[in-house]
Amino acid sequence: MDTGTLALLIPIIGVSIPIVAIWTKHRKDVLQMEIEATSTQTAEKAAQYASRVQELEDRVQVLERIVTDRGYNVATQIEALRDQRRVDENDSGVALDTDKQHAR
């Protein structure tokens, strides 16, 4: 390599090294911010899911208490409601044929 080419390369390399260092630091900072934002969003979603799970557990406990504590016979109650519906349908003069509706 002649001295003229070397004289041109030294300033180019001298300017390029700081630019690459600045760009690398900037890229590192951007990636760190993305990681922090993602972890914050994940924590928020986890809190929302935990809250929803707690609500559902509370509802299940209420349903269990209704079925077990009061001695309800759920099947008997469902049949009683069906019987009441049949009586109401006959009184109105318009009967729903539930078997045909289910067949469709």
From TrEMBL:
Keywords: Membrane, Transmembrane, Transmembrane helix. The chain crosses the membrane at residues 6-24. This is Phage shock protein B.
